[in-house]
Amino acid sequence: MRAIRGATTVQQDTPEEIRAAVKELLETIAEENALALESCISILFSNTEDIRSLYPAKAAREAGFSSCALFSAQEPVIDGALPLCIRVLVLAEGDAPARHVYLRAAAGLRKDLGKYAIALDGPSGSGKSTVAKRLSRELDILYLDTGAMYRACALKASQCGIDVSDEPAVAAMLQTLDLRIEYRGGAQHTLLDGQDVSEAIRRPEVSMAASKISALGCVRKKMVEMQREIAKQQSCVLDGRDIGTAVLPDAPFKFFVTASVPVRAKRRFDELCAKGYTVDYAALEKEIEERDRNDASRAISPLRRAEDAVLVDTSEMSIEEVVAFIRRRIQEKV
Ligand code: DC
User: Fold this and answer.
1) pLDDT attached to residue 333
2) Is the pLDDT of residue 112 over 70?
3) Most buried among 53, 192, 218, 264, using CB within 10 Å?
4) Long-range contacts at 33-36 (CB < 8 A, ≥ 24 apart)
């Protein structure tokens, strides 16, 4: 006999969500384990106490598991446990090794098995990209810098002489946009029309243009689709402004990384000076404030902390301390 385990989560305790989540979980278990419905002996669900409106067992019947025995139990309340979570144990005939399946936010419960995402959101200069790179190396997962994608859109608009706030012109430009993200030696390279623009998109004038172009719905739609596609393929850490709120709202690990404006301006100042740019510190501080305002006040997916994101104020923390803090929080949740 085979004992296959799995889990999934819902965003809200509604029959529709539970039905869809259970169907997806059972279908994935069946597919990954080449499981015929008739070989299924019984399915035991155990649900966190906030799952009430429809027993997952009922959803299993509706998903076609009509002849096996179904049980549904409620878990005791455990402090800090993943909320709105449905666990399953499927007993089936056969002796092939079981492939356990953990989906959505539950993927974080068994990082050894499934793909998972770490969302790092926050304003510019908060240190999130340095932290994301370190985490990706330590955890051996991909790092996706989503800001680079908006920067590449802004660079393309500038090359085409398009005003970044002219939405119809930008929408037309997107039709033929050839933007690719590639990885070489573990480092992200941003390719525009086949050219590596990884350095060019870091130019100071591209920063403000990226902030402006990223407010357009047509740009966000296209970038978010690309980001989800990349995140679907493998475990990764993504940094941006809307990863935890809009791109991957089901990400099991979410952090909102921030720091005071002077600290962020100083970091950006040092970074640009090290690259040989001549920069005016006061102008940089003003630009950071303006970019924060743009990013936080735009109508679509503004920069904001997801309700379930852990706040990390890095103003007085070293990179090592931030990475250690985030790793500890991930460890505690697994
Ligand atoms: O992280 P960054 O400074 O490279 O990002 C450049 C701009 O892109 C930033 O001002 C806002 C925008 N951005 C966004 O709107 N959503 C993201 N997920 C990432 C960046």
Assistant:
1) 66
2) no
3) 264
4) 33/2, 33/4, 33/92, 33/96, 33/98, 33/99, 34/96, 35/4, 35/90, 35/92
Convert the pLDDT of each residue in 25-63 to its tens digit: 999 999 999 998 889 999 999 999 999 877 899 899 988
pLDDT tens by residue, 137-157: 888 889 999 999 999 999 999
Q: What pTM was estimated for this model as a whole?
A: 0.74
Task: Give the separation between CA 235 and CA 76, rounded to whole angstroms.
Answer: 30
Q: Does residue 146 have its Cβ closer than 6 Å to ligand 1?
A: yes
- Tell me the per-residue pLDDT of 198-233, one tens digit each, with 9 for 90 and over: 999 999 899 999 999 999 999 999 999 999 999 988
DSSP result, 37-56? GGGEEEEEEEE-TT--SS-H
CA of 315 to the centre of ligand 1 (A): 20
Strands (E), the chain: 2-9, 40-47, 69-74, 85-92, 101-102, 117-121, 142-145, 179-184, 187-192, 195-196, 236-240, 253-258, 310-313
The rounded Å distance from CA 44 to ligand 1 centre is: 44
User: Based on the number of CB atoms within 10 Å of its own CB, is 144 exposed (0-12), middle (13-18) or buried (19 or more)?
Assistant: buried
* CA nearest ligand 1 atom 4, residue: 147
